[in-house]
Every structure is written in C-alpha cells, then in structure tokens.
C-alpha cells in the first residue's frame, strides 16, 4: 500500500464553501484553523456559568487568531496580482502577515508602534524577514499611515479593514457551532481594532441562516480600561494597557462592533489591567492555558460579570486569541518562579525539595 499524502488542511480547504474564493485563488495554507475547543474545569463557576469553553486560537501556526483571516487576505491579494503586502500592527497581525508573505515569496512591510510590541511578536516579524518600520506613535497613527501608503503604492493592505480578513476570521464561529452542536449563549472576546468581534458576529449570523445553529449568541466584548474607546464613546488619544495587543484608541471596525453588541443583546465593557492580569494568572494556574494578556481580557470580563451576579448560568465560549509565549516579559513579571538548585543526583534533588 502506498502511503497517502496528508489531506490538505487550512482555512481555504476546510471552509471554501463559505468563503469568496474563485478558481484563481491560490489555495495557500500554513495549517491554520480547526483549533481545539476545550472545556473549562475551574473558571466556569467563578464566572457564574454552567459551561465555559475556550477556543484555542493561540494554536494557529503563528500563535494567534490572525492567521485565519490573513490566509484569505494574502491569497486574494496574490490572486489580484499583488507582490507586496503591508499592515499596521500591535504585533500579531504583523507576525501573521510576515509568515504568509514568506511562504508565498512576496514582500511584507509592517508598521509597528515603537517600543510597544511584545518581544515574541517582534521576533516573529524578524524571523520571517519582513521589512519592519517602527513608528514614533501608536497603532492608530500607524494604521492611518498604512492606509495612505497602500492607496499611493502597489501594495495590498492586510489590516482587518480588508474585508477578506473578516471573511477568514468568521470561520471560527462555524467551528464553535460545529463543536458544540449549536451556538453558545454567550461569546466572550477581547476587543482592540474590533475586527474579530465583527467577524464572529457575521459568522454566527451565517450559521443561523444555514441551519448550523438555532440561536445567536450574545456578544460580550471586553476592552482594556486604558484603551476603551467604545465603552467611553469617544476615541482615546493615548491608550495604555499591559495588554499591548489591544492598545488601540480608535478602532477601525468601531461601528460594526457596536452593531454586533446591540443586535445580539450583548455588551462591550472595560476591564482593568489588574483584572486582566488576575485572569491571566488564573488561566495558567487553574486551567493550564498560557495566553497573552489581551486574551485574558475576555475571561477577566466574564469573571467580573460573574462576581457582580450578572451572569446566571448558561454556556459561554471565550476566544483565547494569542499565545502567552509571545510576551515573555509580562510572564516573568507576573509569575513567581518556584526554582531550586541542586546537583544532578536523586539525593541532592531530594535535599533541595526537603523530602
Ligand atoms: C491577542 O495585531 O490589532 O479587535 O495589530 O493580538 O480584531 O483587533 C491585534 C489584536 C485580541 C483584538 N487579542 O482583536 C494587531 C492587532 C489579541 C490581539 C486582539 C488582538 P481585534
């Protein structure tokens, strides 16, 4: 018997039927999508939930949910003849764009806020060989520059203002409905530039239309308190938060995030850095899930609502958007390491452990 080649994986293969692909769209893949949905053992109760499920988007090839949308945006850019892509980024979009550009042999330009991108994400942009421009300003200013530059030059913009990004990211909602057999009652998600909450709401709407779900979840979005323009109702000129991924003061998809909130009967609220870091530590200590701070914002939000008695049972899914390895500096600052030295003998280790 000959050995069968592995079946093609990835968002463009798995979800072609719900994506705007043509015969000419290259079916590129880094094996993104089909991420695990893992049930919470310890934190559901703290949130007042009967069931809490974690969608492990950190398991995508570059360690964040961005790969789902980026694979579609890059494939469509190449289909349309692009030889270069550009994005502004707090770090994960640039890591993802750089990876797919490397894979496809095109150029990638990334505009990042100087000094505010987590170390692991910078390492990725460097490793994938992208051209990195550190902006003396924040993400919002970098995105404005990227929009202007891509209007002037033959370079495709792959931020989530590119509708193909939203198309790709909506596939996660389909996967959740498939895994649970229906949509959850609540979808909890961190909100930065607001592309992902927009994509999930679109995805759940399509699931209901296609008979893949009987209900629409309430969309619960969470922003960091120092970067919460949607909660405050006005742009934040100088956003600040330990969750650098969502350090965004003027989200591009603001209007559609508000629509997702209002049409679903959901909410968008703020969580403080302390609340984010508490959820960050609990996810690691109690669930074995090491996420980056931005991803912990949704759990921080559910815990806050639970404590306030504003969640009374039901089933929630929370999107864990990025891997904790991306931000080693925050991890080292937040966890108390329990390390002892010993020589390489059982006796010495026993002594070190006090056994
Ligand atoms: C881990 O990479 O905006 O609300 O430039 O990296 O769709 O922006 C990242 C955002 C949540 C927020 N969690 O998603 C970027 C960028 C993580 C993130 C968000 C981001 P959106």
Q: What are the key terms here?
A:
355 residues; six-stranded mixed sheet; alpha/beta; binds ligand AN7; four-stranded parallel sheet
Number of helices: 15
**Average pLDDT:** 97
As a percent range, the share of strand residues is 5-15%
Distance between the termini: 55 Å
Estimate the global geometry from the Cα principal axes. globular
Q: Catalogue the ligands.
A: ligand AN7
Q: Care to count the β-strands?
A: 10
Low-confidence stretches are: none
- Largest sheet geometry: 6 strands, mixed
What percent of residues adopt helix (DSSP H or I)? 40-55%
Structural class per helix/strand content?
alpha/beta
Strand order of the largest sheet: 1-2-10-7-8-9
Order of helices and strands: HEHEHEHEHEHEHHEHEHHEHHEHH
Please give the radius of gyration in angstroms.
21 Å
What report would you give on this structure?
By secondary structure, the protein is α/β, with parallel strands linked by helices. It contains 15 helices and ten strands. The protein has helices spanning 11-14, 43-46, 66-79, 92-104, 119-127, 139-152, 163-169, 171-180, 195-209, 229-232, 254-264, 273-287, 293-307, 328-334, 346-353, and strands spanning 37-39, 51-56, 84-88, 107-113, 131-135, 156-157, 186-190, 218-224, 267-271, 315-320. Helix 3 crosses helix 7, helix 7 crosses helix 9 (195-209) and helix 9 packs across helix 11. The longest helix is centred in the middle third of the chain and has 15 residues, at 195-209. It is globular, with a radius of gyration of 21 Å. It starts with 10 loop residues before the first helix and ends with a helix. The mean pLDDT is 97. Ligand AN7 binds at residues 64, 89-93, 160, 190-196, 245-246, 292, 294-295, 321-322.
């Amino acid at each position: 018997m000959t050995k069968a080649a592995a079946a093609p994986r990835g968002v463009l293969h798995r979800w072609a039927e719900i994506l705007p692909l043509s015969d000419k769209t290259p079916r590129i893949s880094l094996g993104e999508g089909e991420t695990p949905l893992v049930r919470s053992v310890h934190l559901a109760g703290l949130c007042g939930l009967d069931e809490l499920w974690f969608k492990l988007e950190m398991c995508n090839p570059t360690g964040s949910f961005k790969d789902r949308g980026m694979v579609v945006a890059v494939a469509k850019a190449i289909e349309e003849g692009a030889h270069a892509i550009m994005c502004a980024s707090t770090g994960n979009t640039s890591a993802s764009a750089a990876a797919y550009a490397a894979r496809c042999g095109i150029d990638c330009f990334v505009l990042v806020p100087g000094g505010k991108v987590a170390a692991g994400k910078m390492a990725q942009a460097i490793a994938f060989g992208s051209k990195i421009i550190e902006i003396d300003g924040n993400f919002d200013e970098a995105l404005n520059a990227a929009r202007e530059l891509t209007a002037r030059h033959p370079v495709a913009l792959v931020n989530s203002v590119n509708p193909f990004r939203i198309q790709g990211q909506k596939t996660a909602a389909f996967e959740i409905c498939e895994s649970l057999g229906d949509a959850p009652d609540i979808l909890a998600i961190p909100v930065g530039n607001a592309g992902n909450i927009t994509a999930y709401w679109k995805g759940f709407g399509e699931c209901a239309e296609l008979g893949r779900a009987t209900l629409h979840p309430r969309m619960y979005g969470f922003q960091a308190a120092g970067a919460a323009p949607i909660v405050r109702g006005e742009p934040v000129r100088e956003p600040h938060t330990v969750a650098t991924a969502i350090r965004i003061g003027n989200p591009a998809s603001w209007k559609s995030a508000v629509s997702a909130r209002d049409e679903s009967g959901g909410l968008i609220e703020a969580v403080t850095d302390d609340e984010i870091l508490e959820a960050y530590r609990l996810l690691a200590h109690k669930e074995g899930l090491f996420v980056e701070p931005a991803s912990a914002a949704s759990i921080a939000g559910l815990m806050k609502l639970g404590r306030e008695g504003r969640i009374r049972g039901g089933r929630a899914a929370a999107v864990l958007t990025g891997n904790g390895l991306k931000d080693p500096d925050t991890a080292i600052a937040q966890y108390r390491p329990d390390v002892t030295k010993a020589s390489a003998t059982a006796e010495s280790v026993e002594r070190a452990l006090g056994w």
